[in-house]
Amino acid sequence: MDYQFIDVQITDHVATVSLNRTDALNAINLQFAEEITKVFRELDLMDDIWVIILKSNARIFSAGLDLKQMTLSDHQGIADMFKIPARDQYIFDCCHAIDDCRKPVIAAVHSKCVGFGLDIAASCDMVLCTSDASFTLREARIGIVADVGALQRLPYIIGLANTKRMAYTGRFFSAEEVEKMGLVVEICPDMDALLKAAEQLAGEIKESAPLAVQNSKEVLNYGRSATIREGISLSVHKNMLLLNSDDCRESFVAFMEKRKPEFKGQ
Questions:
Q1: Contact, 181 vs 158, CB < 8 A?
Q2: pLDDT tens digits, the chain, 266 residues: what are they?
Q3: Domain residues of the chain, as ranges?
Q4: 48 vs 19, 25, 85, 191, 238, CA distance in Å?
Q5: What is the pTM of this model?
Q6: Is the CATH code 1.10.12 the one for domain 210-256?
Q7: Any idea what DSSP says for residue 6?
Q8: What is the CATH code for 6-206?
């Protein structure tokens, strides 16, 4: 994994992905979006990775879309930046890559999480943050609509009314406010406590069978566009496969032997 703006560390089935465009406060440009897309697609294919932690090495989580680099220097008009050719598709694909990744993704957010940064956080399975964190859908303040997934994903996380409040006002919402909405599952006093909490949560997830966790994520994501009966049907199909997995057999043997199961992700 050789990236300019991303650092990846892998320890005991957990990949820690650090957004590392620090000089630009992790503002998302085309290359950065491409690297985010590629790293999550790569981690998705690595059987030895069971959980992913996404964090920032900058002094904030993300400043959002890099408007300076995305707009044309010859002033042909900001509208031209949305005429997306194939090479620019990564701007939209990077959040999909996080959402589609079979491995659960824990976002560890500190300080400001702006615009595109919130799109990224909303693509993760769970969000933890520091007490000084704040979140904003900033697009309405610059005259556009959030268009890389937040308006589609957030209603399933925080509800439609809260999503409208964030989208219409464009203001910053505190850690306490978004925790009440359900966006954040835990608030930590500082960065050290945040990373420790993310690692602890990753450790708790690793106690479960990896294939069961990955298939649960697929069923949950499918449920956003399926009926209850369709979702149950997919769950039953998944269990027909999982019941034949080595990990499922190991769980039954461990239960009979009164010991902790040793899962292999097989």
A1: yes
A2: 689 999 999 999 999 999 999 999 999 999 999 999 999 999 999 999 999 999 999 999 999 999 877 664 444 445 555 555 555 688 889 999 999 999 999 999 999 999 999 999 999 999 999 999 999 999 999 888 988 899 999 999 999 999 999 999 999 999 999 999 999 999 999 999 999 999 999 999 999 999 999 999 999 999 999 999 999 999 999 999 999 998 898 888 888 888 888 898 88
A3: 6-206, 210-256
A4: 22, 31, 35, 27, 21
A5: 0.91
A6: yes
A7: E
A8: 3.90.226.10
